[in-house]
UniProtKB/TrEMBL annotation:
<keyword id="KW-0472">Membrane</keyword>
<keyword id="KW-1133">Transmembrane helix</keyword>
<protein>
    <submittedName>
        <fullName>ABC-3 protein</fullName>
    </submittedName>
</protein>
<feature type="transmembrane region" description="Helical">
    <location>
        <begin position="239"/>
        <end position="259"/>
    </location>
</feature>
<feature type="transmembrane region" description="Helical">
    <location>
        <begin position="123"/>
        <end position="149"/>
    </location>
</feature>
<feature type="transmembrane region" description="Helical">
    <location>
        <begin position="82"/>
        <end position="102"/>
    </location>
</feature>
<feature type="transmembrane region" description="Helical">
    <location>
        <begin position="169"/>
        <end position="194"/>
    </location>
</feature>
<feature type="transmembrane region" description="Helical">
    <location>
        <begin position="6"/>
        <end position="31"/>
    </location>
</feature>
<feature type="transmembrane region" description="Helical">
    <location>
        <begin position="43"/>
        <end position="76"/>
    </location>
</feature>
<keyword id="KW-0812">Transmembrane</keyword>
<feature type="transmembrane region" description="Helical">
    <location>
        <begin position="206"/>
        <end position="227"/>
    </location>
</feature>
Amino acid sequence: MTGDLWWSVPFAGGLAVTLMLAFAGAGLFLRGSVWQALAVGQWAALGGVIAATVALPVVPVAVALAGAVMIVLHRICDRERWPLALFLAGLALVTLFAANLPQANLAAARWAEGQVYFLDRELLRIIGGVAAASLLLAPLLARIWLFAQATPDVGLRSTHRGVFVVLEAMWWVGVLVLGSAALGLPAALAALLLPAWGAASVVRGLHGFLAGSLLLGAMVFLLAWVSALHFDQPFGPVFVLWALVIAAVPRASVSLVRLRRRT
């Protein structure tokens, strides 16, 4: 990264991965599977820490561990306690690695704070490939999520069979791993969960909900990018704070309007 456009690669990669996370978060919201994000994201971070410690490629190892956790979660019926247990197990292992190995400590800090400003062209090419796949898969994913929401009791298991849902799971794991690698795990989870949460309070209909989630995600990234650079702060924590604000504003506005109508 040289010259005046040093920021172009991290900006393009960070914005693209944020939009993919916001889109994936809308799907999780429709499925009611937000707990899975915590477990899969934490084990992706564990894979990244292990890979950095033993000098292996980060993304493949993170994808392998996150994918294994996704398979486990698809095979169990408990959609809250098992994801939380796996999240805690992953968090404990990352903490133990970081406490006992100096390389793991540095890697854990990178996955927590986010390294978007150091995003290189190789990772940008991977993000670009997943973004292109996301555009192709978007209509199919929207139909799967809509069906899962319409039939929450019988749709989850039936839609988890077949090549389409396998593609959905692979895409979802890839997006979360790339998001965690680029933005840091806390920021990736914030991009996954909060824009969809905010959009759900002010828009109606599937397409409006998806568009609202993407719009709020883009706003969070732009505000975090400018703020973190201007005040010389780590990107990840700034991103999380802006995501909380951007998600809370529409929900607070709706609550205020309802309160005025009652009075």
